[in-house]
Amino acid sequence: MDGTADWLIDTRLRRQQLRPPQADSPDGALKNLLAVQSQEFAYARWSLAQRGGGDAATLERAVADGTILRTHVLRPTWHFVHRDDLDWLMDLSAPRLHQGNKGMYRQTGIDAGTAERSGNILAAAVAGGAHKTREELAGILAAEGYPGKGLGFIYLLMHAEISKILVSGAPVRSAGGALKQSYASFPERVAQGSGSGGRESALAQLALRYFRSRGPATVKDCAAWSGLTMKDVKEGLRLAEDISPGALASFTRDGLEFHLAAEELDAVAPGPLQASPGAAPIVDLIQCYDEYVMGYSQTRNHLGGTAPYYASSDAPMHVVLLDGKLAGWWRHRFTGEACELDVRMDRALDSAEQAALEDAVQRYGRFLGVPAKLVGAPR
Questions:
Q1: In angstroms, what CA-CA distances link 126 with 112, 147, 168?
Q2: pTM of the shown model
Q3: Sign of the dihedral defined by the CA atoms of residues 301, 305, 306, 307, in that order
Q4: Of the residues 174, 189, 204, which one is the last residue of a structural domain?
Q5: Which of 17, 110, 167, 265 has the fewest CB atoms within 10 Å, i.e. is most exposed?
């Protein structure tokens, strides 16, 4: 394997809706992907807009009204999840998240009694639509004798999220203009009991949604993304066939077994993908936690390209794709009413590639609603 699997890139781009047919809304894009890593909130909004349209304000409204929720699920990091999916997905994730956090719970003094009492305090604080910022909840917990800062506070909040007490509320804009996370009541914001008939149904749904949106991918890819065991993912694939026969297909290549949406099988086998003659290059500016890279572990190296995924320490952290392959890094900064994009390509671009990069910068500016200017990219 040479690390550049041209045969799977086009399919992944299309199934992840970075290429047509794209979703008709940001929440539609989220429903397709099931969950989107979102610890970089500002950039995670862009991940959904790239796939489903809308601008930054559209995404902020969807988070504010609770259509799109942000919480710790799957793995102990932030994800966007649609409100219709979070209840069953949290039920599936919670046991392994709590198990993975056990060491930190012990270290920070969070036993069963502490978790229950602090959870009751937090539930009361946000009841009736009373969304609270992190700082407000810190003050409330501290007043009751619980940690209001440090790891103890962080893990009390996370325990409450995983236990379906807290979930994201409407973002609050600070005096400086930055958006701050707030917390709301999980039962008040989340569609309870929707879309799941228990653990087996949840495993099947996760397998279907993951492999249909991210395939071709392997069981190991899905296990790393979902936080489940490989045994669970294999069981999910078996159950998926029972509830949706023929929806998924599999094939072997590069010594690995790949799973994907059945209708895509002809696109990846038997030969390599052939680019259309004369096709214009396409540049995508994706965030470093975008599902196009974070959706895989075992086969992330199949993306290929001239740039390593992890840039040098002084380079921007976000990722430039050139025709779906890793080609450089970027970040934004604001200067007055404009946005400058610092882009570092791994090699010089020809005129068509430079035009594609300029087009990507303008798309990002339209998303933000401000003029955007390219800086730092070689010509």
A1: 21, 18, 11
A2: 0.93
A3: negative
A4: 189
A5: 265
